[in-house]
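Structure in, sequence out. Go:
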């Protein structure tokens, strides 16, 4: 038997300074530390970010526990209903056992039936008496519970639903009408059903129709909490180009028609003869538009016809570093274009002859910019990153290599990815491998900064804190429609440290270069999914406490599986084994914001519309789900 020791642990007794710091933080909650130990802890916290986060979490949890002292616990309103249902179920089980025993003892059958009837009568009478009067003899109301009275058990008992979770959420979506046009809908969700609900909760909410009609051939719709307008991507149709429109929801501030303008075309790129491993580090934009922005909240916009820039030289990776090419954006002439808003919706075009690529388009955190990936509608060139500043006449491409993709926003900077071609081997056995490389882009100056420390990361979805990201770590493949898709590797959640020590991921083996142990260790990567993919999308809520990930189906990329994960407020970790929403079928495109996740269940209609709008909402008291009216519907992301 070992007796506990009362001696104070020496500093060198601890396995690490972090363990010692956490022990001190825990003891500090109960009382004051020794002055020497308190001084050491203060010095350690000043230099250790991880332990500082732990200290903040301890303090927050302590305040939460103290707040519970003043909160009177209230039992759920369905407590008696569930208890009565359980009693009724147990009674039916015992009665069934008695009947089986009676069949084996046929000689005692009459006596057994009589005894059972008497027992049931006594129990029912006792329950009825106890329900009619309380403990003090006064009348006590009880919930109405439907109980099966047939001893044979043929009529199932009705178990009431669980107590709904009160929320306050506003949900927006598009509903396709019988004439084929889409209309903007709004619903206020006040209650959602908790996961343990047996029957659907009553979550009826009024639906508001803003009387805004959209084109029949829309493909994707994006909104912003900072703006009362939608950005709508329309698919190319017979006689119509693919367009990107800004549609104001408030008809009273719909923009007036724009005068004829002569905008500059897509900037051309002049590249020096030496190949480069990085995007331009000094990209100076000289392309300007003669259109003056309107003073209205949603100014009119025009868009030039497609005038694609020449394909840039294919980038290649080699062991020997080469000089960095300097790209200068130069305007090229284009004919004048006069575009007027649609009289029905007040929509204005900010881009024309392009189609959306991927799912990662989004507004900047401050709502001042909108970034997306697009390629020419005729499929002549690959994808580039486009930026639209709210209030400007046009969305303009900020890359011109035709192999760049928008990933997410990191503060006020764009996180993008491009594709490199690496030659493995030599001679007849030489093979070509497509690998990603990420970079930061300043929206104002369009200057790019290479991110070698990020390793082989494609389309990083960075969390609001800038410390974690979801990205593809592996090789890519070229798709039939000019673009790229994941080939060999993993979709991972890792630490996002652009300023960390660079990781050498070069290798002569395609497999080793696709999944490098060095990169996985350096970024503390956790695998979400592995293997070849068609498409994926990852989005964080504004607080960074929830992460939603959608992975396209291999056979039909128009639909996929959507999962939601919670982020620990204690250490920032995400347990991928315990999702809040586990691989739910969903169409491409979902919306996540503070306290809710919105998606559409697939329907037989096809790629754009879903069958129903689904809402998963959460508060500090739990989470729950609710369905909207039936479709066809489209999620506003």
């Amino acid at each position: 038997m070992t007796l506990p020791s009362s001696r104070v642990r020496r500093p060198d007794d601890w396995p690490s300074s972090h363990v010692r710091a956490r022990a001190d933080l825990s003891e500090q909650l109960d009382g004051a530390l020794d002055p020497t130990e308190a001084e050491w802890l203060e010095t350690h916290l000043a230099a250790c970010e991880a332990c500082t986060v732990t200290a903040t979490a301890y303090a927050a949890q302590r305040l939460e526990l103290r707040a519970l002292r003043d909160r009177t616990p209230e039992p759920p309103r369905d407590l008696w209903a569930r208890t009565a249902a359980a009693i009724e179920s147990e009674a039916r089980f015992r009665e069934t056992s008695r009947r089986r025993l009676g069949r084996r003892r046929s000689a005692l059958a009459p006596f057994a039936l009589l005894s059972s009837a008497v027992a049931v009568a006594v129990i029912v009478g006792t329950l009825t008496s106890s329900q009619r009067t309380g403990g003090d003899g006064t009348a006590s109301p009880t919930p109405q519970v439907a109980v099966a009275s047939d001893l044979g058990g043929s009529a199932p008992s009705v178990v009431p639903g669980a107590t709904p979770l009160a929320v306050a959420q506003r949900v927006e979506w598009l509903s396709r009408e019988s004439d084929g046009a889409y209309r903007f809908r709004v619903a206020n969700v006040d209650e959602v059903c908790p996961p343990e609900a047996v029957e659907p909760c009553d979550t009826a909410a009024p639906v508001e129709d803003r009387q805004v009609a959209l084109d029949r051939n829309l493909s994707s719709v994006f909104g912003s909490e900072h703006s009362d307008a939608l950005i709508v991507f329309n698919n190319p149709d017979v006689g119509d180009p693919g367009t990107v429109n800004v549609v104001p929801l408030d008809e009273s501030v719909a923009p007036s028609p724009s005068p004829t303008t002569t905008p500059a075309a897509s900037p051309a790129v002049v590249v020096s003869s030496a190949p480069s491993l990085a995007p331009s580090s000094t990209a100076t934009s000289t392309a300007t538009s003669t259109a003056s922005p309107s003073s209205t909240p949603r100014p009119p916009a025009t868009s030039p016809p497609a005038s694609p820039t020449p394909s840039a030289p294919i980038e290649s990776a080699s062991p020997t570093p080469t000089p960095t090419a300097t790209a200068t954006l130069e305007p090229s002439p284009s004919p004048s274009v006069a575009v007027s808003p649609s009289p029905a919706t007040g929509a204005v075009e900010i881009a024309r002859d392009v189609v959306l690529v991927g799912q990662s388009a989004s507004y900047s955190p401050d709502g001042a910019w909108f970034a997306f990936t697009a390629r020419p509608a005729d499929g002549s060139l690959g994808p580039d990153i486009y930026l639209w500043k709210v209030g400007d006449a046009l969305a303009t491409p900020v890359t011109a290599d035709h192999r760049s993709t928008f990933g997410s926003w990191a503060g006020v900077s764009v996180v993008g990815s491009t594709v490199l071609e690496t030659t493995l081997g030599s001679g007849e056995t030489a093979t070509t491998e497509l690998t990603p490389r990420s970079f930061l882009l300043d929206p104002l100056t369009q200057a790019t900064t290479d991110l070698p420390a990020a390793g082989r990361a494609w389309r990083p979805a960075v969390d609001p804190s800038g410390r974690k990201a979801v990205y593809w770590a592996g090789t890519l493949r070229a798709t039939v429609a000019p673009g790229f898709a994941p080939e060999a590797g993993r979709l991972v959640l890792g630490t996002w440290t652009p300023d960390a020590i660079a990781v050498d991921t070069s290798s002569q083996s395609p497999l080793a270069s696709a999944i490098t142990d060095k990169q996985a260790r350096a970024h503390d990567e956790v695998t979400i999914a592995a293997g070849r993919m068609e498409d994926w999308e990852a989005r964080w809520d504004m607080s960074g406490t929830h992460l939603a990930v959608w992975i396209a189906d291999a056979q039909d990329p128009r639909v996929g599986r959507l999962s939601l994960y919670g982020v620990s407020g204690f250490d920032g970790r995400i347990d991928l084994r315990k999702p809040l929403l586990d691989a739910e079928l969903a169409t491409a495109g979902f919306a996540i914001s503070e306290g809710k996740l919105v998606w559409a269940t697939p329907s037989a209609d096809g790629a754009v519309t879903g069958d129903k709008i689904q809402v998963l909402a959460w508060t500090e008291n739990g989470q729950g789900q609710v369905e909207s009216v039936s479709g066809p519907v489209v999620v506003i992301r």
